[in-house]
Fold these 4 entries.
Entry 1:
Amino acid sequence: MKRPGDFWPMSFAITSLSLKRSLLAASCALALAGCESVTTSGPKLDPQAVASAEVNVASLSEVVARNPNDAEAYNTRGSALARAGQYKEAIVDFDTAIRLDPNMSKAYANRALALANMGQPQPALADYERAINTNPNYVPAYVGRGNLYRQARQYDFALNDYNRAVEIDRHNAEAYHNRGLVHQAQGQHAAAVQDFNRAITADANATPPRIARGISYIALNDPKSALDDFNTALASAPNSVEGWMGRGQAYEAMNDTERAKASYARAVQVAPKNDAARQAFNRTGGKMGQHYSLTN
């Protein structure tokens, strides 16, 4: 499932050519540091990625120093700081970007995302609304606000935002995925699968929609299709606890206890403190310290 901090809008409308070159040089390197492994306990930053992000923050600070009145420079550095988990510092930059350009919708949306990551949903909601007011067609703001509503179980409001997002952008994988999560939460698994299909069509490399679709396939009594999804997801995200847990559930539904046990063992190995993984491992008769084959 997607969390508030999963995506940072990074498409910048830069008017100064020299500033554009500086930001692109720093942002391209920053993009390489934006990956994280997926666990049920929340996103964990790779130390090497953080170090790389810190280097790019320094580079972007040089850009800010050369362009102290350019909102884009502050917005870009704020995004880099947020990727490094420095949300308070990021918000300071987003504040400055908004002061310099009160109509910068992406700065409002970025600040909202930082606030959401800090556990402040109400101020985040207000910023998403500001982003929409400045640009009624700004899709990331609808998706972000929809995510806040979904997490608060205000599903009707969430669906309205996701519907608006895909109305504006019919190829937005994140909107389809999150709309599918709403259907899934409501027990409407057939509708959820349709939206996860759309998300995967829009972004064939996206892992979360495949895991989510696998969960709905299990609910629809189709464990073989679920297993295909979990295996595909794990091929690109081998440390996904959700993927290993789903794989175990699929094998359990197929009465293959040994492979289920091996999958849960891998989930425990990836996230030793995950209670759900330990409970599933113990329930299927798993024993700590014993070797389990994932292929036999």
Entry 2:
Amino acid sequence: MDNAKASPRTSITRRRFLGVSSGILAGLHFQSHAQDQTVESAKPRIRKLGTLDLDLVETTPVVFKDRVYRFEYVRPGYWDNATGDSYFRFTDRETGEASAPFAKGYHLGCAMVEGGTIYVMGTNIWDGERIDIFVSNDMEHWETWNVLNLPGYGIFNTSLCTIHDGYMLMYEVGKPPEVAGTRFTALFARSSDLRQWELMPPECTYSKDRYTAPHALRHHNGYYYNFFLEAVNGGYEQYVVRSKDLIVWELSPLNPVLKASDEDKQIANDKLSPEQREVVANATNINNSDIDFCEHNGKLIINYSWGNQHGTEFLAEAEFDGTLADFLESWFPS
């Protein structure tokens, strides 16, 4: 028999096998698609509003004296920064008016409002060893003191939240490697008065085994919620985990919280110039990161960044109809 040819029986058997295999694969694809659709329909509905600015990344929306402000870390290379250095400021969400700059030379800040007082954390330098706090009742006069001083560490983003008996600070580290593992990793410190701080045990972390850059920390109903950046599929997506002890973490079955989409490039700031709008339209978008949010009038105001995760980045805004408690709990359906 010519080995180059298959017998009719062999050909029929092969066609039947291929037909069954194709059917199985089609069924698996349909099942996967159905599961994806189920996850999407169960997710909290975040409505993306579009781009607010260029070259702004780390921001925190807060409510202060019944107005929504956006804490902004202004980088040296920001298009409207003529100072030659980094600094912090607050921008009125409604009017766009910015406060006077403060914390010159500081980086990667975060903000929290409690009562009538604003608290801002900042890293002394990029990849720094020190975190300081800035405190004000009017956005004009600032008191400052040291929070953490960790020689040999490389500190980046921070996030501060209230807990039942004080405050918890999440801070991102890239070194030393025996502490950080895979850069970039969340560590934690605790305080009862924002002046005396205690480092949490080394097992309180997320996560040394892979890229999980932390962005926003909240505490609700006994759980810590950590919104972080996960590296996936050639890009970066915003994920959330929760924990009762900062050691054992539960990944949301509804992740990702945010991922890159065409909605990111909508224009949500009519003051952007035609040239800036063109930059937005032509930009590479593989990333949704640096999420933070605040509750105002029964709605969550969300800021996040998008771009290429390598320096060309944009500030965007989104909304969620519901309370902060609704938002946090809905990522972990019972």
Entry 3:
Amino acid sequence: MQPDVIDLRNFYASPLGQVARTVVLRAIQQRWQSLSGLAVLGAGYAIPYLDELREGTERTIAFMPARQGVAPWPKGMLSAVSLVESSELPLRDSVFDRVLLIHALEVSDDPSALMGEIWRVLAPGGHVMIVVPNRRGAWARHDATPFGAGQPYSKRQLTELLRHALFTPTHWGEALYMPPIARRFMLKTAFAWERFGASLALPFAGLHIIEATKQVYRPALAGKLIRVRGLLQPVLVPSGGTAAGKTLLKYNNYFRANQKIPCSPIRFQNHQGMATRTGLPAASRASARTILA
């Protein structure tokens, strides 16, 4: 289920949302310490984090999915936010150096198409930061927060998704070890929870935070065998080649019925009254002798 933009805005205005933003932003800034002179894109609902990241950048814009709705940003300035379809971003290729993806992947109808678009708009050597709910974490099971919406991911699932989308992970991190409880004690001890969980490498953090870089090459993929239809057709035979013509039609009709061996059309040459087969693959000649017998 896609969270509404109003629900997202209300969550980040709450005490629990403010603590969650601070924890996640700290983890992002540990990897992206300076974005000076870079072009930055925030996809999903990234504006609570872009306020801190946009300083010194060449340009920073935010894209929000159509089903979610859009909120104005930045405050008191010209709008830098747009409502888009996540699988068809209205951008040219290779125009951004950094992409922050949050509240997007877990609620996408087609994660592969979304990651394909992120790959397309990233410049060669560009980096994407993905923030997604952890399948083992308590935040994914608590639907009172936006991190409880959609499909949470395991580390293995994210690895497969990134590999198919032609991204190479460069850093794996986790955040929000504290339970999603908006009590004063929990909020005050949030950073103690983070230090304790990170020191023990506990697998129950609320979020995965992955940084990956764009591969600028595409691996050669093995093609699949397909049945080729209509490849072999009867052809005209020169006059005087009546026997050759009958043989040709017999051979072509057989392979049109079976359609298993894709080869070039068969030509017959009449030489001193003898029909000679040309254009046959080497593996098919023995079969042809059997068929024509």
Entry 4:
Amino acid sequence: MKTIAMKLAEGARSVRTHMATLALLAAACLASSARAADPAATPPQVIDTACRVKLAISTASFGRAFREKKLDILDFPAMCDRAGLDAIELNDFYLKGDWTIIREIKRRAARHGIGICAVAAEANFYRATPAEIERERAHLEQYLDIAYYLGAPRLRVNTCPYNKHLPAAIIPQGVTHEMAFAAAVRTFRSLIPAAEKKGIILVLENHGGISRTSADQIKITEAVGSEWFRINLDTGNYHADPMAGTEPFEDFLQATEKVAPYLAFCHAKVWDVTDDLREPTLDYDRFFAVLRRIGYCGPISIEYMGRKDPLEMLPKCVALMKRCRGGQ
């Protein structure tokens, strides 16, 4: 049994300890207030200006190499790893819905420690019948499942084929832009529950037709109305001929600023790289400055669309992006 004297002594020690703690807290608060009042007393904050986005490349960059049998799709992860990239983007027209290819790509990507940042699936909503629209929806749903299997957090989508003559040359008689818009929004909305369940963001590319401009992208994104539907900005697709980088109809830097609230993925188009690591048509120093300013943290996926051998251009494209990004 403790005596009354012992209990009183313990109580006194507790009070002294508590008072000492309060004194330390008060001193810390006073010091903090003094530093705030005197900026010279506060050490300057060091800000890392390097834009720490991950760098990837799309299989679309290597169409020529695939056609000429210089590159096999299954060797793509190893090649990109050797090039110093962080991740890869896989297009549906090279995966072909072939589960033998899909499984092996996943195994090899894991072996080389390279991520799969996105799967890209094509669509065309300039269709004349409900059955044709349903086939487009089914294709996107199939690649949503494939992206989930591959561990890709993004499914890049579009609304039609795009080059200097498309989609104008393939729009069926009687089909309007308004009809294509309604079909696209309806289809994308129908995919949102599955995308959310799988944890995959649908990202809409500026890709001609009803998704040609930044305003078009924003209009569709807001019409779909989901956090699981965002924007993929392609720096080179604001040109009438995205395969050659001619006739720009919208400034890609201004477009980046406009879509910033919805931006979840970027394609960095490259047609050529100079000896001093610049793209002659697109100012990537300014582009990365915009990305830093808007706080973009997603990946940058290179799309090489130039006339030179893509295998020879790969190291130059990577070096260009690393120089503009800063850091390692």
